[in-house]
Write a structure and sequence with these properties.
It contains 26 helices and 21 strands.
Length: 730
């Protein structure tokens, strides 16, 4: 067989049947992708998995011993059932095979092995029906090799219902046996300074270690590879942006006129970030800046001042928002801030897909002619029929809500326009470095004066059922005091299925690691609350008889959503029952209370964002996090973390620590293959910083990586054409 390299296709390396199986299960097509499908843990031959903690309905892989084997005839139809009881010494589990009595020859009492399948239940006992399995050596051979085997780790790979861990192990072993020419992506100086393994040895030791001691060194080496390759790719993208020529946009009379009419002073951070943005707009290359700040910290004002600087030279700015409610809110806010002196000249224009056809045509004409120098919209801005006269600035609100292709479509409507990204989701330093490494990052921490603040409390209704009624009493009291209340639900209709029944937190026992995922907690029996159910509930509470209740969710027509939101903002609605459509951008200073039902079904950052909808004016905010999650669970920890602090940056770190990074670049940031493998942005903060500094040095000396072919090849593999295109658009 010819030698195998990292670029060899899996069809050539393993044959078509195995290659197709791996592609369907894991979307991998070449050897490099297979070899970066790292083991998630390692087992010992004598190590048994606690069977009594296996989660029902989940795909699991366990190490266990055969305790008994029996066969019986089926009663209702012809055929037999082979039942094999396996045990960890404490609990027991039944393996069930229909009409496969021959398996009794393999599954003999005393044999140990790995068993993989979906955990089911029959007559109150857990079972695996038709599981995959692989057995360790037969009993006699096992005794002879016991001492050697005891110290040989068994890699357990992320698996699926169609591909078991040992099938992955077999494929990896076949590839490693003939693998040659593994170029090292690290500069030799860095590898020696950090005492890392060479690339070929690192792959061998992580996939086929002879001892447990070999694993740590391999992981450390491959984590460094990952950090260095990713940081170099991001810095290359920054180089590419800075190689473009941008139209210089200098401030002038428009910005001076706006600032002179402001009824308040800018916060120190607004001033500092505003100066950074103003300098970027006058630079030689397009601005590519991320501005992060708490809800209500004044990011929109910073963006508007940038729009005025662009408008000074006749340029247009387009602000794209994730929802129509938010787009309409932005337009009203911008028009209000511009006032009657500037609004007619700049003609801020709304463009959304739900506008009446005639109104939308008029708006599109104002945009195309250049009359509208400030344009706010949703995905309608991306339409081929939407053109700009001189698009100079693209403002993306809540970047995580948009795909890369969507952002690039808007950006392509101008000639190297400046890009300003706004996010109210605080981003830890290491995440910013890893996810937005090609953007300059600015942070607004100081909040405008006059905010009354927010008090947050957890309502653990499973332990204290009486608190549920008290939540609604408290809401009625706030309305009686002249204030307004948000009630947020995780679903539109909790009794519906499909898209309406929005999935919540995924909980399974911490002691069990499911194939292909991290440990999570067990799902508890609980009451589900959707917008529909809450509306019915409030209609039956006497205290709400004279309270004006309305609902809001994403499936309502755009015009209806905007009407409801405007009515709430105008004080014509007392209690708004909604989904997370109110998460961003809704500004109702009189809203004092935020009630979040099934709060544990939301992430930490999302809870913080929702909480930020209240306490925005002179009225002190109250946030009630209603949950049935048991104490001691990760789900409960998320909720309690939010109640403990209002510092979004602290919460961002906690959130990252609780849930892990997942796909750090994410679908909205890049292509399918860019999720992190071994690198962890919290634990590996120092490593990421080191990798970035080294990558900067390499690119200064060798911008085209001509003297670093291993690194160039690793970037091409790790950040392929699709991902590179995606990075160039983010």
């Amino acid at each position: 067989m010819p030698a195998i390299t990292l670029d060899t296709s899996l069809v050539d390396a393993l044959g078509s049947p195995t290659a197709k199986l791996l592609e369907r299960a894991f979307a991998m097509t070449n050897v490099a992708e297979l070899l970066t499908h790292y083991p998630r843990r390692y087992a010992r031959r004598g190590e048994l998995t606690p069977i009594d903690s296996l989660p029902l309905g989940e795909q699991v892989t366990i190490v266990a011993e055969v305790r008994s084997v029996s066969s019986r005839q089926m009663r209702q139809r012809r055929g037999s059932i082979l039942e094999v009881v396996i045990s960890d010494g404490a609990g027991a589990l039944t393996l069930t095979f229909f009409n496969q009595g021959w398996r009794a020859n393999d599954l003999q009492v005393g044999r140990q092995g790995m068993f993989s399948g979906k955990v089911g239940q029959f007559q109150g006992h857990q079972q695996l029906a038709h599981p995959d399995y692989t057995l360790f050596d037969d009993v006699d051979a096992a005794r002879l090799n016991a001492e050697a085997q005891q110290h040989t780790p068994i890699p357990i790979y992320p698996a699926t219902s169609t591909v078991a861990t040992w099938q992955v192990q077999k494929a990896v072993g076949a590839v490693l046996a003939d693998l040659t020419d593994v170029p090292d992506p690290l500069p030799e100086q860095l590898r020696r300074a950090e005492e890392l393994l060479d690339a070929r040895t690192a792959l061998q030791h992580i996939h086929a270690p002879e001892t447990f001691e070999q694993i740590d060194a391999a992981r450390r080496t491959l984590r460094t590879h990952e950090a260095f390759v990713l940081q170099t790719a991001l810095l290359q993208q920054r180089q590419a942006v800075r190689a473009m020529s941008a139209t210089t946009r200098r401030p002038g009379g428009l910005l001076d006129a706006f600032d002179s009419r402001l009824a308040f002073d800018l916060t120190p951070d607004q001033v500092a970030v505003g100066e950074q943005v103003a300098a970027d707009l006058q630079g030689q290359w397009p601005m590519n800046r991320l501005v992060q700040g708490e809800v209500g910290s004044g990011k929109t004002l910073v963006a508007l001042r940038a729009m005025l600087q662009v408008a000074e030279s006749g340029g247009q700015s387009a602000l794209i928002a994730p929802t129509e409610v938010l787009a309409a809110q932005h337009l009203r806010s911008i028009a209000r801030m511009l006032g009657p002196h500037l609004a007619p000249e700049l003609m801020p224009t709304l463009l959304t897909g739900q506008m009446p056809a005639a109104e939308r045509r008029k708006a599109a004409l104002r945009v195309a002619s250049g009359q509208a120098r400030i344009v706010v919209g949703t995905h309608a801005l991306l339409s081929a029929s939407t053109t700009f006269a001189d698009l100079g600035l693209v403002v993306v609100d809540e970047q995580h809500r948009f795909g890369v292709e969507q952002r690039e479509t808007l950006r392509a409507k101008g000639t190297a326009p400046h890009v300003l990204v706004l996010t109210a989701t605080p981003i830890p330093r290491t995440v910013a470095m890893t996810v937005f490494g090609d953007l300059d990052v600015s942070t607004i921490r100081t909040m405008p004066r006059g905010r009354a603040g927010i008090a947050t409390f957890v309502a653990p209704v499973a332990e204290k059922p009486g608190w549920f009624a008290r939540v609604w009493e408290r809401a009625a009291e706030e309305v009686t005091a002249g204030h307004q209340v948000f009630v947020v639900c995780a679903a539109i209709d909790a009794d519906a299925t499909g898209k309406d029944a929005k999935a919540g937190a995924d909980d399974t026992p911490a002691a069990v690691v499911r194939d292909g995922s991290d440990p999570v907690e067990p799902e508890q029996a609980r009451t589900r609350w959707g917008v529909v159910q809450v509306e019915r509930l409030l209609a039956d509470i006497p205290a709400f008889a004279d309270i004006r209740v309305a609902i809001l969710h994403g499936r309502m027509p755009g015009e209806q959503k905007d009407t409801v939101m405007q009515a709430f903002a105008a004080g014509e609605i007392d209690v708004l029952v909604a989904t997370t459509v109110v998460e961003v951008g809704v500004d109702v200073p009189n809203a004092s209370t935020m009630i979040i039902l099934e709060a544990d079904r939301f992430g930490v950052s999302q809870l913080h964002q929702l909480r930020g909808r209240v306490g925005r004016g002179q009225v002190r905010g109250l946030c009630l996090l209603v949950t049935e999650a048991p104490e001691g669970t990760v789900a409960r920890a998320r909720v309690e973390a939010v109640s403990a602090t209002t510092d979004g940056f602290v919460l961002a770190e906690i959130d990252l620590d609780l849930r892990g990074e997942g796909d750090v670049l994410g679908d909205a940031q890049s292509g399918a293959r860019t999720s992190l493998r071994l690198l962890r942005v919290v634990q590996d903060a120092d490593l990421i910083a080191l990798a970035r500094a080294c990558a900067e040095e390499v690119l200064i000396e060798d911008p085209a990586l001509e003297r670093h072919p291993g690194l160039a090849a690793a970037i091409d593999r790790r950040v392929g054409q699709q991902e590179r295109a995606a990075l160039s658009k983010s």
